[in-house]
């Protein structure tokens, strides 16, 4: 038993995650944002997922159209996974967000999951990630982002973890909307100032995308696609490529 985790939660399952009544209590306790700094709350929620479920790490990504994304994570690998999917514009979290439905990739080393997102799967495996489980955050068929869970061993979520992960994503959605209501006002766009606490707010990406739009006379989606393509060819993150555009090291031509 992990001596650093609470005891009851007490009797634990074979997967290493709390069981039964203890899990329900942890859900209420861990996903309350009361008393938390608004900027820090999403990262705290990510770490709570790791504490509660049999996973290695977690991230929360929020999307503002095709060109905007913000995320928080429990650890550097989870952050790099989020960055990789933003750079590629592809991966389990992007699929889950577009479909507003869960995407459970139990083995990125082989089989249908590896073939579905071949470039992302290769990058994930290089980071030591073997399985990714992405759950949409939102309601009524509208996803405002995703909760992304990863594990360093292949295999599906246990039946118990899978049944509990969905209430977790709902609790996180409620927590984020509560923060939005408190910090941004009920009628404000879903991008209040507390989002400044994200690990990467992509100011460089927005600025570089705008420069490409002006230079090529194209829309934001096409400009971002060009930036992503350059990043992929040169083995960069999209943020790194954006910094090169801003510094004048990259110029795009039709």
Helices and strands, with pairings:
Layout: H1 20-30, H2 41-52, E1 57-63, E2 69-73, H3 76-88, H4 92-99, E3 103-105, H5 111-116, H6 118-126, E4 131-139, E5 142-151, H7 159-184, H8 203-216, H9 220-233, H10 238-246
Antiparallel strand pairs: 1-2, 1-5, 3-4, 4-5
Largest sheet, if any?
Answer: 5 strands, antiparallel
Provide the CATH superfamily of the largest domain: GAF domain
State the distance separating the first and last CA atoms.
60 Å
User: What sequence of helices (H) and strands (E) makes up the elements?
Assistant: HHEEHHEHHEEHHHH
Unreliable stretches (pLDDT < 50, length at least 5) are: 1-17, 184-200
**Could you estimate the helical fraction of the residues in percent?**
40-55%
CATH fold field value of the largest domain? Beta-Lactamase
Tell me what the CATH architecture of the largest domain is: 2-Layer Sandwich
Query: What is the overall silhouette?
Result: globular
């Amino acid at each position: 038993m992990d001596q650093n985790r609470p005891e009851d939660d007490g009797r634990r399952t074979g997967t290493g995650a709390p069981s039964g009544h203890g899990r329900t209590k942890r859900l209420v306790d861990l996903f309350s944002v009361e008393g938390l700094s608004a900027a820090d709350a999403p990262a705290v929620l990510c770490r709570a997922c790791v504490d509660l479920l049999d996973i290695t790490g977690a991230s929360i990504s929020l999307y503002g159209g095709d060109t905007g994304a913000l995320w928080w994570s429990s650890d550097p690998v989870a952050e790099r996974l989020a960055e990789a999917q933003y750079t590629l514009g592809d991966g389990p979290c992007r699929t889950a967000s577009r479909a507003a439905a869960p995407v459970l990739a139990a083995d990125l080393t082989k089989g249908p999951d590896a073939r579905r997102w071949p470039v992302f799967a290769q990058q994930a495996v290089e980071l030591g990630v073997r399985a990714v489980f992405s759950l949409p955050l939102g309601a009524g068929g509208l996803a405002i982002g995703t909760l992304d869970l990863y594990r360093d061993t292949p295999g599906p979520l246990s039946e118990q973890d899978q049944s509990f992960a969905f209430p977790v994503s709902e609790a996180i959605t409620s927590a984020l909307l509560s923060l939005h209501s408190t910090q941004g006002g009920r009628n404000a766009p879903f991008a209040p100032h507390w989002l400044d606490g994200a690990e990467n707010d992509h100011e460089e990406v927005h600025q570089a995308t705008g420069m490409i739009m002006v230079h090529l006379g194209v829309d934001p989606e096409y400009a971002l696609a060009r930036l992503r393509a350059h990043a992929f060819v040169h083995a960069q993150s999209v943020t790194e490529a954006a910094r090169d555009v801003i510094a004048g090291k990259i110029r795009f031509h039709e």
